[in-house]
Each structure stands twice: as C-alpha cells, then as structure tokens.
Amino acid sequence: MSETGLPDKRRVAESFSRAAESYDAVADLQRQVGGELLAGLPPLAPRRWLDLGCGTGHFSRALALRYPQSEGLAVDLAEGMLRHARPLGGACHFVAGDAERLPLQDGACDLIFTSLAVQWCADFAAVLAEARRVLRPGGVLAFSSLCVGTLQELQGSWQTVDGFVHVNRFRRFEDYQALCAGSSLQVLTLERRAKVLHFPDLRALTRSLKDLGAHNLNPGRPGGLTGPARIRALMEAYERFRSVDGLPATYQVVYGVLRKED
Questions:
Q1: What is the distance between the alpha carbons of residues 173 and 187, in angstroms, rounded to a whole number?
Q2: Mean pLDDT, the chain, whole residue set
C-alpha cells in the first residue's frame, strides 16, 4: 500500500479531538490491545517514558503506576484529547506533537509506548527514525498498530454497493516488517494478531467507530450523506457475515517491540 493513501493528519487530529468525551466508553479494543502491549514490555527501569498518541491518557496513568519513580511525558496530535487527559494526570507533561517530528531532544527517553496511534502516520519510517533519535542507548520502542485486513467485513460489504472508499486504509504487515528491519533498531518482537469484535447490528458498529473518532478519514471517501438505498444494500451485504455472536468486525493488530542498541 502506498503511504500517500493514508488520511490527512489534520483530519485525524480534528476527528479524535471531537471524540475525546465519547472515546473511553467505546474503547474496549484499545484497552485490550494496549494492555497486551504493556504486558509484553521487556524488563525496564526507565528514567523517562513517553506515551505517544496518548489519547485520553489511559495508558499514561498505567505507565505511571508501573514506573512510579519515572518521569512521564504524553504526546498527542489532537488538542481535544490532551485537554481531556491533563486533569486526569499520569504524565508529568502533556504536549501537542507529531510522531513524525517529535518535540523532544535527542536521547530524551528510555521507553516510547504507543498503542493504536501510528497507523495514522503517513511516514512510518520517519516515526521509527524519530524513535531512534529520541531514545537513549538501550531504550525501547513498543508499538501496536493496524494493518491490511482490518474491518475486512465492512470493506467487503461496501464493495458490493459502490466504488467509493468507505473504510480506512492501513499498511500491509509486510510493510511493517520491512520498515522495522531497515530502521537501525533491533527488532525484539514483531507479530500480527486478529481481534474480532461483535455488534448486534450495523448501526452499533458505525456508531462505535464514530465515537472513537476512527470513522472513514481516507482520501476518496464519499461526500455528503449516504442514501437510504445504499444503506439497505450495505446492511444486506453485511448480514452474510452474521454469526451467533452478532456481526463481526475483525481488526488485524500489529505488535512490535524494538530496542536501540547500546
């Protein structure tokens, strides 16, 4: 997949800012994925950690509990998320910033933790280069992201209805493998796991995506409202995937842990 096919970061920031108040109520997948990433960290005693793409600050607070003697930094592109997170604490500093151009000095951190944020970055090679710059020798980058195959049921259902882009595009897992291998960081682990959520109906799924701020942000998406005839056709197409648990929504999650060598 071309890096240029990813959403405009300004739209991403605006969308997640609007979703700051509703995000936590529908963030079950985000909590599960971030918890698994946190549990998979190697033994560390960081002097300073960074929660990159901190959102509402849930994992900033988790990192503060895990490393109580450390200084915590939280960075997010969405000002609305930072306004929500600051009063809840966790990090010592909450800063607006871009993962591709971090507002931090060289060698500032021992740990960069970023969960389900970097899939919105158009230049993942730049994210890795910035992580290498900001990490001290021996420091760790732990990330989770999404790859091709995410929301495949919704994408396939839309393809039977029209030719527009209705589902966010993501990189291939092979792209993550190649970019991590070429990053000058030591790859400790890099894997893909499928997570499947179930919803009672299509409206519940689309409402969840909107409340997260993760609805369709791609170039090529249709403008205006979707007509009732196309919605009915989409619902009929999606019903083919229904199981006893409801309508499935599959997320292909990438987990990576990389180290800057001493």
A1: 15
A2: 87
pLDDT value for 1: 37
Backbone angles phi, psi at 116, to 5 degrees: 50, 50
Q: d(Cα 28, Cα 196) in Å, to the nearest integer?
A: 12
Q: From CA 81, how far away is CA 199, in angstroms rounded?
A: 26
Q: Give dist(CA 16, CA 119) in Å, integer.
A: 14
Residue 123, domain extent: 3-148+168-196+254-259
Query: 241: closest CA among 187, 181, 201?
Result: 201
CATH number of 174's domain:
3.40.50.150
Name the phi and psi angles at 194, rounded to 5: -90, 135
Whether 159 is in a domain gets the answer no
- Would 68 be classed as within a structural domain? yes
Instruction: Copy the structure tokens of residue 133.
Output: 């710059």
Q: Is residue 207 part of a domain?
A: no
pTM of the predicted model over 0.70? yes
Tokens 């519940």, residue located:
204
Map tokens 């900033």 to a residue.
Answer: 60
- Output the pLDDT for position 4: 45
> How many domains are there within the chain?
1
Residue 229 lies in a domain: no
In the predicted model, residues of the chain with pLDDT beneath 70 are: 1-26, 163-167, 211-227
User: What SS3 state is found at 250?
Assistant: strand
- Residue 23 has, within 13 A of its CA and on its CB side, a CA count of 22
Query: CB within 8 A of 209, min separation 6: which ones?
Result: 215
